Amino acid sequence: MATATDARPAAAPGGPRPNRNGISERGLARLFISPSITAMAIVALFPILYAVVLSFYEYVGLQQGGFTALGNYVDALTDGRFWDSVIATFVFTVFSVTFEFLIGMGFALIMHQAFVGRGVARATILIPWVIPTVIAAQMWRYMFEVTPGFINWALPFVPDDFNWLGSSGWAMFTIIFADVWKTAPFVALLLLAGLQTIPEEVYEAGRVDGASAWQRFTRITLPLLRPAILVAMLFRTTDALRIYDLPAVMTRGAFGTETLSVLVQDFVIATPNPGFASTLSVLTFILVLGVGVLLVSVLGKELVLGDEA
Amino acid sequence: MSTPPAPTSGAEREAADTRRSPEVAGGSGRAGAVERRTTGQRLGKTALLAIVFLWCLIPFLWMFATSLKTTDEALASPVPWQGPWGWSNYLSVFDQGFGYNLRNSLVVASMTTIICVGIGSLAAYAVARLELGKKALILTGILTVSLFPPVSLVPPLYEVWRAVGLLNTYPGMWIAYIAFTLPLSIFILTTFFNAIPKDLEEAARVDGATPFQTFYRVILPLAAPGVGSAAILVFSYAWNEYLLASTFAPRDLGAQTVPVAIAGFSGSVQFQEPVGTIMAACVVVTVPMVFFVLILQKRIVAGLTAGGVKG
To answer: From the CA of B86, how many Å to the nearest CA of chain A?
Structure first.
């Protein structure tokens, strides 16, 4: 892409700006954009193609065996562990994104109302989001852990020896909970930015027409907030599908919390098998990027239509 | 991206935000709400706000209390305010080489930030202002890269890094981070460049500046807030990243970063859960970040909303 720089420097028929001072604007543009394109091609595009190649080979440990064509794919797709991690990833995504939006919306409305200390409030809600996820994971892991057992002690109806992280179902719950704790404030911030663009006059008009607070929320706030909600939803969903840090640290993928990222990483370090790991990574790539592209095209259309309306 | 009805840009939004600063917000814009507010409503709102604060901060109080507990009995007790207290966990953290981890994270995050924002601002300027063929294709490509699941690059990159000797090195991490943070920085910076009036460039051109001079003498200084916002977000990504760091530099203290160290702390005695040590390490990392956020929250929010609008 960047190598064609000199191919047609002055051949820009509709271009408003002519050649000037030695280097053409088009040439400069290509020069400016080429380092970024090169970096992304080397680290993002090349590896995924290389993964496709590796995925066709059989490995015994780190030793390359023979070409197996789609053998690895057959193994992966008939492996219950792969499908379990697909389910775990989607369960995590659906529940965490849903609760992040419900709680984030509540927080955004509260902060939109509060006049005092908005700067401090914003900083406070940014802290959970900005700290490393690994810290949040260790913190919540030990709060849920039987010893020291802070959560069991703080919740009145929970027995002291209740093992949150060691029972299927509840293990996923703790991970979703930690993620909602960390990310709901961030969603609130994105929604708050949207709320601040809604003019107060619209609400005044609503009040004059006798709309109740709930009606003002459902008929004014939600429709006008739609673009902000869709963008935040897109971000959160594509991000949640890649979840790695929380399950890796809190449960190491045990008790039904092995997400796709945890599964793939396991075949790189714990039980190394470059061929099978690449197969899983290609499948993950197709799945996650597929959902991402689907969301972008659907929501992108919504956003454009919303802007025109 | 040059033509669509660009929603409020990050820079404009930020301006709007300043206008609604606490002192002003109660004034003209919200006269209706102000009239009706009673003491009861005020108390109710404060209570609601308190819920938000507690939600965000209680875990940190627990973390801090736990980091100060010294004996096994104290660490095994669920009651947060039960001592004995002391700083020994903090000594143990640095005995295990946490100083090296902090240094490694600082170097990796700084390298990522400098290079990513450097080449990202060039690309963003080309996208926002210069005449560029196949602009839609390039933007779609960048957007697609931003949707890549990093884990799918881990097995192939691991093989390549192993072959060229980049495992357990700084470049092994920052080279990868640059590619993952470039899309976000390009989107943020494009928004900020778009918000700068075109007249300024025209004026520079009339005065005989080359396009490159226009970029680094006129546009870049004006976009400094946007560059700052992008830099903050890139830095915090690289500072927090765990998946690639734990795969490419899992143990070597010469390259192991903070998140990997925190995930892997061991107790001073075998089989002992190192709760206190881990929490002390978490506090060491969290306290500076709290100040960082308090000082920079405006820039962070501006960057997030700018990236959000374009993303």
So the answer is: 18
Task: Note whether A32 contacts B130, CB cutoff 8 Å.
Answer: yes
CB contact under 8 A, B149 and A25: no
Q: Is the CB of B131 less than 8 angstroms away from the CB of A153?
A: no
- Chain A residues whose CB is inside 8 A of the B125 CB are 32
CATH superfamily for B97-264 is MetI-like (1.10.3720.10)
Residue of chain A minimizing CA distance to B18 = A119
Q: Calculate mean pLDDT across residues B25-32.
A: 42
Chain B residues whose beta carbon lies within 8 Å of the beta carbon of residue A17: 131
pLDDT at B196 over 70: yes
Judged against a pLDDT cut of 50, whether residue B27 lies above it is answered with no
Residues of chain A contacting B122 with CB distance shorter than 8 Å: 32-33, 35-36
* Residue A144 resides in a domain: yes
Closest CA to B223 of B187, B194, B198, B201: B194
pLDDT category at A266 given cuts 50, 70, 90 is confident
- Domains of chain B: which residue ranges? 10-76, 97-264
Kindly report the nearest CA distance between residue B103 and chain A, in angstroms. 16
Q: Is the pLDDT reported for residue A51 higher than 70?
A: yes
Q: Which CATH number does the domain housing residue A137 bear? A: 1.10.3720.10
CA of B122: which chain A residue's CA is closest?
A32
Number of domains composing chain A: 1
Residue B213: closest C-alpha in chain A: A21
Residue A9 inside a domain? The answer is no
- Could you report the predicted ipTM of this complex, rounded to two decimals? 0.81
Q: Give the per-residue pLDDT at B37.
A: 59
Taking only the tens place, the pLDDT of each residue in B110-122 is 999 999 999 999 8
Q: How far apart are CA B250 and CA B243, in angstroms?
A: 10
Per the model's pLDDT, the better-predicted residue between A303 and A15 turns out to be A303
Whether A56 is covered by a domain: the verdict is: no
Burial grade of A200 (CB within 10 A; 0-12, 13-18, 19 or more): middle
A185/chain B closest Cα distance in angstroms: 8
Taking only the tens place, the pLDDT of each residue in B116-173 is 999 999 898 888 877 777 778 888 888 888 888 888 888 888 888 988 999 989 998 9
Q: A124, B7: Cβ pair inside 8 Å?
A: no
Q: Say if A300 falls within a structural domain.
A: no
Instruction: Pull the structure tokens for residue B110.
Output: 């700084």
User: What are B207-242's pLDDT values in tens digits?
Assistant: 888 878 888 888 888 888 888 888 888 988 899 999
